[in-house]
Write a structure and sequence with these properties.
The complex is a heterodimer of chains A (342) and B (281). Chain A has 342 residues and is an all-alpha fold. In chain A, 72% of the residues lie in helices and 1% in strands. Chain A is built from twelve helices and two strands; from the N terminus they run αααββααααααααα. A two-stranded antiparallel sheet of chain A has the order 1-2. In chain A, a hairpin with a 2-residue loop joins strand 1 and strand 2. Chain A is globular. The longest helix of chain B is centred in the C-terminal third of the chain and has 18 residues. Chain B has a domain of 147 residues: Rossmann fold. A six-stranded mixed sheet of chain B has the order 6-7-8-3-9-10, with helices on both faces. A four-stranded antiparallel sheet of chain B has the order 2-1-4-5, with helices on one face. Chain B starts with 14 loop residues before the first helix and ends with a helix. With 281 residues, chain B is of the alpha/beta class. Chain B is globular and about 50 Å long. The chains are: A mainly alpha (342), B alpha/beta (281). Chains A and B meet through helix 9 and helix 10 of A and strand 6, helix 3, helix 5 and helix 6 of B. The structure holds adenosine-5'-diphosphate (ADP) and magnesium ion (MG).
Chain lengths: 342, 281
């Protein structure tokens, strides 16, 4: 297909997904003693090596070394950079900034509890969001945007995988919109959302929708493309079997195409989620959605001596959450692959 | 539709068990199950190239309860012909009839088995076999009974819940055969069913197919390029030649229905093989 394929088989992820029973020794009527189901296989595949201390050391010294070298370089070089807000914070200062953020969170929690105890019933606490609140907002925004993206991309991808005409019809649009930066989408989205969304539902604030829609627009494509590839990759003989059984189009989709495409869909979703999280910060920053992006922006605007350290801390948090999200999708992907026998 | 039913068997079934069936072997009826008349197929040349005449006027028939082979070297149009009979492709010219009715498209009355098993990788053995019945609207209890019977017939009762990839190639192909048999087809169309198997497994599956046929008397049209296999298994065989694909010769195999591996040492077997191999060369 010409939709530029991205079945991203991340090499180190795809090894050892499941022990292959393929091409076992020639025909024997004896049972292979055990027939583990996919859950067992899945769990087994997660434990490739024994946990001896030696293996542990072997596996961990390179990453540990990498981190240590990074921290040392950082600690040595940072003080030499003189910014308008003082010298660049080193690891220790950033860690302290993290501690401060946590303290603020604790304090704000107490204030809130105090408010709930004393304020008359029915009033809503409206203190400033804490760092943790902002993280949760960001997660919700990405989750929502990603969900919409998936709901659009999977059906469209399936359709374009099934119909050559449809694929050719949307191909130029996909090619053109795919590389567009979130920053370019935002103004357009903002105008449209302002025109369409009315009312002041606090759970669907415009800034939230704006940021989420930008996430959607940017994270749509990998899922769409991979789904299309998956829908086209269905074994031809299997389709013939479907013909012989006279499957209805719905049955064909449900029983043949979707199961075959599922691993591709998950690979696409994983890439999409990564992109969604990456563009979120920019989207929030511009949309003033009260998440991590806004936190970074506000700190930048505020410009206190602690700001750089706080921003640096949030960079680590953003990276770490992105890493966790990717791992979660990776786990889901492996699970689906194991269950589909692919 | 006169489909021989498969005697119900429960529990483990040894392949050998199939032979010791006490049904009187039915003799091949005179009625024609399948008839092809003047079947032609021309493929448009790829990218404006010259058209390929894959089949030029094929006539053949398969009697009720007969096992017939289509024998020919690769590229001579065997799969094309079988796919036309199965309804997966349409003939450019000519007629295909099953039980006197013209074939217009694929359907479960013509069960198909392909070289590469083509099982649903995500369905257990049982569900693979049962799926077609479900689609055809069989009731649950009928389905269960039918699938259990078939599992016994193909000797895979113990593997009912296994996934295809947990099975050897030979076992997978037996599942594929059971799946094709499930909706009680008029005829079974096999396209090089043992082509992907190693020599040992191949022999054991030939034995399996022969006993399956001897016992159930399901009508079978099998495509193969293996001369020994064609002679050993079939009542009759058609030798095909290529460019353009056509039937060169029809041969009655001179061995009875209850033949066994011994016939492979029969002088007539060896002579027949030599003459066919000369022809294919
Ligand atoms: N879809 C197709 N388009 C064009 N040519 C085809 C197509 N299918 C088969 N052919 C050609 O028809 C001939 C017969 O093919 P096939 O029936 O697959 O042979 P066999 O099964 O005997 O090996 C071959 O020359 C092949 O290249
Ligand atoms: Mg072929």
């Amino acid at each position: 297909m010409s939709l530029e394929t991205v079945p991203e088989e991340i090499a180190d992820e795809s090894v050892g997904i499941s022990p292959s029973f393929d091409e076992v020794e020639p025909e024997s009527d004896e049972a292979p003693e055990s027939k583990p189901n996919f859950v067992q296989r899945f769990i087994e595949s997660k434990k490739p090596t024994k946990d001896t201390p030696k293996n542990f050391l072997k596996a961990f010294w390179p990453p540990v070394l990498g981190i240590v070298v990074f921290l040392v370089l950082w600690a040595v070089l940072a003080p030499r950079v003189e910014t308008s807000l003082g010298e660049l914070p080193g690891p220790v200062e950033v860690l302290q900034a993290g501690g401060d953020l946590y303290d603020e969170y604790q304090a704000s929690n107490e204030a809130k509890a105090e408010f709930v105890r004393t304020a008359p019933a029915g009033t809503i606490y409206t203190g400033p969001p804490t760092f943790l609140d902002q993280i949760l907002t960001s997660l919700r925004t990405v989750g929502f945007g990603f969900l919409i993206a998936t709901l659009i991309a999977v059906p469209v991808g399936l359709l374009s995988g099934l119909s050559d005409t449809f694929q050719r019809a949307i191909n130029p649009l996909v090619q053109i919109f795919r590389p567009v930066s979130p920053v370019a989408w935002l103004p357009i989205v903002t105008y449209i959302v302002s025109a369409v969304v009315t009312g002041d539902d606090p759970f669907l604030a415009k800034s939230f929708i704006n940021a989420a829609m930008v996430v959607t627009l940017c994270s749509l494509w990998p899922t769409l493309l991979n789904t299309a590839v998956g829908a086209q990759s269905v074994d031809k003989d299997l389709l013939n079997v479907g013909e012989v059984l006279r499957l209805t189009p719905i049955q064909k989709l449900r029983q043949l195409i979707l199961p075959s495409a599922l691993p591709y869909i998950f690979t696409g979703m994983r890439i999409s989620l990564g992109i969604g999280w990456m563009v979120l910060i920019a989207a929030e920053l511009l949309a003033q959605n009260p998440g991590l992006g806004k936190f970074v922006w506000d700190e930048f605007q505020g410009g206190s001596s602690e700001s750089i350290a706080r921003i640096m801390f949030s960079v680590f948090v953003i990276g770490f959450i992105g890493f966790i999200l990717d791992r979660l999708m990776g786990v889901a992907e492996k699970f689906v692959r194991a269950s589909q026998g692919v | 539709m006169n489909v021989p039913s498969i005697a119900s068997q429960t529990g483990t079934t040894d392949l050998v068990d199939i032979t010791s069936d006490d049904n009187e072997p039915k003799h091949a009826g005179d009625s024609q199950k399948l008839r092809c008349a003047g079947v032609k197929k021309t493929f448009k040349g790829a990218g404006g190239g010259p058209a390929v005449e894959a089949l030029s006027g094929v006539d053949l028939y398969v009697r009720d309860n007969e096992l017939v082979s289509l024998l020919g070297t690769s590229g001579c149009g065997k799969s094309t012909l079988l796919n036309i009979i199965g309804g997966l492709e349409t003939a450019s010219e000519g007629l295909v009839e099953v039980d006197g009715e013209q074939v217009v498209g694929p359907g479960p009355d013509r069960g198909m088995v392909f070289q590469n098993y083509s099982l649903f990788p995500w369905k257990s053995v049982r569900k693979n076999i049962s799926f077609g019945l479900e689609v055809a609207g069989w009731g649950k209890s009928d389905r269960v009974e039918r699938v259990n019977d078939l599992l016994g017939v193909v000797g895979l009762s113990e593997f009912a819940e296994a996934l295809p990839r947990e099975l050897s190639g030979g076992m997978r192909q037996r599942v594929a055969i059971a799946r094709a048999l499930a909706p009680e087809p008029d005829i079974l169309l096999l396209d090089e069913p043992f082509g992907a198997l190693d020599a040992h497994t191949r022999r054991s599956l030939q034995e399996f197919l022969l006993t399956l046929w001897q016992r159930t008397r399901v009508t079978i049209l099998m495509v193969t390029h293996d001369v020994d296999e064609a002679i050993y298994l079939s009542q009759r065989l058609y030798v095909m030649q290529s460019h353009p694909g056509r039937i060169a010769e029809e041969i009655e195999v001179p061995f009875g229905e209850s033949r066994g591996p011994m016939v492979k040492r029969d002088q007539r077997f060896l002579d027949l093989r030599d003459s066919i191999e000369d022809q294919l060369r």
